[in-house]
Amino acid sequence: MRLPPAPTTPTVVFDLDGTLVHTVPDIAAALDEVLALYSVGPTSEDEAASMMGDGLSEFFWRALTSKRLNLPADEADAARRRFIACYAKAPARRSRVYPGIYALLQELRQRNVRTAVCTNKIEEIARTILQDMRLVNCFDAVVGAGGDRPMKPDPRPVQEAVTRAGGHMARALLVGDTSADHGAAIAARVPLVLVDYGYSHLPISALTYGIIVDNPKSLHDAVMRFVGMEDYRGPDAEAEHHPSVV
Length: 246
Fold this sequence. Notes:
Helix content is 39%, strand content 14%.
């Protein structure tokens, strides 16, 4: 039985898409299935990745723009709902966990670190992906989109994830890949690790707060340095906001 964490027990909050799991193959497949009626070309992984970060509905609206489909409002919204339903049926058939993630999460559990997922994806779909990828037991909490819950870059989903994991904001870290994570970390006043292999709309080097990592080892090392820290420099610290790649 896991004991309640002491106030100094760290909590590491991970984004899902583009951070833990490469999900765009399944998202692109669901989009293509729904838009087949309109005879548009297939969606490449790069094209799908460029539209990620702000939830499935926003992804769909961006896709309509990218494919220059000017549908009546009612028809477009019906297609959006079909896309989400199609994706929800099989959200992890083609997806894969990024290298090093399983080992990192296992080590965090062994160190009794609290862990959570905070994603702009619909929470039920996020849980299905984590279950299918055999990751769900690695986390104390999963917070996703649903109801009237705000999405990142609003800080409240991150705060909820930390609270539901049994942690404390004073010892929380966010790991993500997009400007939504960047904004949420600044607003929540927590340190940030950004992976450069994810789905950022902007060049990752343009995001001015946090540490950028570019491979599984540098991600592991950055997270473990935080786990071992008693103090950290937040977004108001007098230091360079954008350290070199680890």
